[in-house]
Amino acid sequence: MSSAAEGATRADVCAAAIADAFKDDGEIFASPMGMLPMLGVRLAKLTSNPDLVISDGESLFLADVPPLFAKGDVVEGWIPFRKVFDVVAYGKRHVMMGATQVDRHGNQNISAIGDFARPTRQLLGSRGAPGNTVNNRTSYWVPKHSPRVFVESVDIVSGVGPARAKAAGPAAARYHDIHRIVSNLGVFDVKGTDDTVRLLSVHPGVSVDEVREATGFDLHVPDDVPETRLPTTEELIIIREVLDPRALRHREVPEPTSKETP
Amino acid sequence: MSKGPRDKRMSIDEVVGELRDGMTIGIGGWGPRRKPMALVRAILRSELTDLTIVSWGGADVGLLLRAGKVRRLVYAFVSLDSVPLEPHFQRARQAGTIPEVVELDEGMFQTGLRAAAQRLPFLPMRAGLGSDVLVNNPWITTVTSPYDDPDGQREELVAVPALRLDVALVHLNRADKHGNATYLGPDPYFDDLFCMAADRAFVSVEQVVDTAGLTVDTPVQRLLLSRMMVTGVVETPHGAHFTTCTPDYERDEKFQKAYAAAAADDEAWAAFEERFLSGDEAAYQAAVQQFQEEQA
């Protein structure tokens, strides 16, 4: 049995928190978008949930768990884009997407900033966010928690939050399941008062006030907010020696300086 | 004596000669992957204008926007992958220069093509419900199931409208002269759907081979297009450049980087156009070869 490890970095804590978001998913397609989500999903597959189905992000299901950005040795299936949409509708999938904005009601925006007709900053477009959020479990990863990301109201709703899903009727709400939002400061869900974003834990070294200040809306904060768990020794070895020996995770989540963590 | 099926081989310019102002054109591939770029470049050289472009967008969309060819753009995303935001698309959106914009969910886009391919006016789907895709496209409506679900409720779903195309342009690895065609890379994308959603479909390929050659060392399941789905076949070696055409070649990342950098600045873009886009396809390929030698 492994114990909580010494010397875990903030990025390591985030990876373990993301892994925890996938631990109870059973045998589903885990679809991480971005580096830390990929690290967290692969960590979960090597520890808490070996049944997870993972891909190379292109078109292959991987039987083994390669390091970040490495090719897998054994392929266990074919998942071209057309079949991804089939799995989305089938529902056996948990996607962790990025979010340029997330609002109090758990709506997400990756489309554009500003007015849709003439945005001040055009982003990717809605991609698969509308379909993901009404079909399969969806989580979000925010590497830099700030009031610019966590806004009162997103400019364009790409990913649908629970209140909007309910308002759109049973076809939208039936399979709607925003599971976790993980940021560099803490872990959240959308089960606060009136389906709002709720703080579940703060990462070690982060205060609840710091999270409040970095959030541009009134966050649901329970009376007792635990600390996000530290990775175990086993997890740290897997992260450092197997999945991310080049420490790419620290580029996405640098260690906070003492000034940032009063 | 058997005559056999028609020979559908055409030149790039003959394909573009079949296009008209105001047409709705679907472009196959996906983002920066296996795009019919030689055909797109030919549209850039033409006088065509006022086009509706339906695409999982990459540089195809970027180039056509920059050249002012697009009246209406139907997309779910526009990306170059390694350069996340397509610079011409971003610029056009922020300047408000695309007269009509239809942003869909990726799955809705596929469903819209499916509806057109099946000659249906719409297909029902969950994707889009509750999102701003429906707010920003108020002409897209919902449809209520005529059947009760187990709770006695009737689901109200998005009625994804058919994305009917006048013309589809796709690029594959191999075809015979009749239009049977294979993809040899990891993903067919949606090129069969594009062809079936269109009145006429033109396929460019790396190489035209004998019909027997299509399956001589390639599984029959890779035959994505049947000749009944194809109007014309064009041989365009490196015709997907600078997007991927696995396994014939991968994305030209250095070229894509130069493209994206040039897009940021009017003068740099004029120089890029002059060097790469001012001549025919042969001139383009020659200029690219010289670029690659300089970069090596």
From TrEMBL, chain A:
Claim: Glycosyltransferase is one of the keywords in the record: no
Keywords from the UniProt entry: Transferase
Alphabetized GO MF terms: CoA-transferase activity
Family designation: Belongs to the 3-oxoacid CoA-transferase subunit B family.
Protein name: Acyl CoA:acetate/3-ketoacid CoA transferase, beta subunit
Source species of the chain: Nocardioides psychrotolerans
Lineage of the organism: Bacteria, Bacillati, Actinomycetota, Actinomycetes, Propionibacteriales
UniProtKB/TrEMBL annotation, chain B:
Keyword Lipoprotein: no
MF (Gene Ontology): CoA-transferase activity
SUPFAM superfamilies according to UniProt: NagB/RpiA/CoA transferase-like
Gene3D superfamilies named in the record: 3.30.30.40, Glutaconate Coenzyme A-transferase (3.40.1080.10)
Protein name per the record: Glutaconate CoA-transferase subunit A
Organism (species): Nocardioides psychrotolerans
Pfam families assigned: CoA_trans
Entry keyword annotation includes tRNA-binding: no
SMART domains assigned to the protein according to its UniProt record, in alphabetical order: CoA_trans
Keywords: Transferase
